[in-house]
């Protein structure tokens, strides 16, 4: 079993977004400089026809933005020129397709080597399918005396580095996925609680223990508190779990559980009326599908000792019925996305024919009580 260094605990209270490197670029305004760029997007385009006089550091032109669609092809035209003498060098462009705040080598869309004045370079590239919709950046660098591949964060003497805005569309819409940070945490209002989700997309790294994406769950303040157990046993990847207070105080954390290998389990006793966050993430940069089960020995959580409700047929194809239940139901897919919401009456038929085959979670709410059922649709 791997042991987490105590030093890492100091990072639990540091919650932030990844930031682009902004301290590189040229130290001189002389000579080599990006002369012009053009990227025709779908709803907006980037056009820069003149870029002299030159600027030191990284030139922020993110107000110039192009919209690009997942799975589509585009051409980026760039002229690597000069605002002074003509000296040999190299140029390269990147688009941060995965939105992680880094320009990775795999995100390079084209390169150039030569001496200005040079012909327009046509960089043909494809936007990956399945990416996450949203705003990101393109970086273009020209480095005098440089060689390919260039470092997008490098500091040097002569050249030019420019950032432009990019809006990605046609991919995964993350607006329906909650839990990316404390302010938008998935609420746990009663126990037991179960959720199936996937942190490999739509989520970022806000809890800086590891570099993996994480998802926040909030246990609302409760009285008569006993112990709480949260487990990720049965998940598809190497997990890490923690329980923290809003100020970052750590109540519990675990990497590998003795009972389920590289999945994680914690047990902790919160103070009465505290708000507690359970944070699910991966070891290192691991991510994937997980199952979170939260149980307790708590008193006063409006739990029903005997659950009389039965979902049938289960597995189902076209419709289901919940015996003896009237109230609100919510049906969630394995990513935690609500796919059906309905007020039902006792023994009312519920149409599930539009749901894809798979495993779902039904959350039932009645008179302040919450119940969780599993539904399989064939």
Give structural notes:
The model is unreliable at 1-18 and 298-306 (pLDDT under 50). This protein folds into 3 domains: 25-169, Immunoglobulin-like; 176-301, Jelly Rolls (Sandwich); 308-378, Immunoglobulin-like, CATH 2.60.40.1930. The chain is an all-beta fold and 378 residues long. It has strands at residues 25-26, 32-39, 46-48, 58-69, 73-82, 89-95, 108-114, 121-126, 134-144, 155-156, 159-169, 186-188, 193-198, 215-219, 228-231, 239-244, 250-254, 265-268, 276-282, 289-296, 310-312, 319-323, 327-332, 338-344, 349-351, 358-366, 369-377. It is elongated and about 85 Å long. It has no helices and 27 strands. The strands form 7 sheets. The chain has a 5-stranded mixed beta sheet, with no helix packed on it. Strands 12-14-19-16-17 form a 5-stranded mixed beta sheet, with no helix packed on it. Strands 3-2-5-8 form a 4-stranded antiparallel beta sheet, with no helix packed on it.
List the helices and strands and how they pair.
Blueprint: E1 25-26, E2 32-39, E3 46-48, E4 58-69, E5 73-82, E6 89-95, E7 108-114, E8 121-126, E9 134-144, E10 155-156, E11 159-169, E12 186-188, E13 193-198, E14 215-219, E15 228-231, E16 239-244, E17 250-254, E18 265-268, E19 276-282, E20 289-296, E21 310-312, E22 319-323, E23 327-332, E24 338-344, E25 349-351, E26 358-366, E27 369-377
Parallel strand pairs: 1-10, 4-11, 12-14
Antiparallel strand pairs: 2-3, 2-5, 5-8, 6-7, 6-9, 9-11, 13-20, 14-19, 15-18, 15-20, 16-17, 16-19, 21-22, 22-25, 23-24, 23-26, 26-27
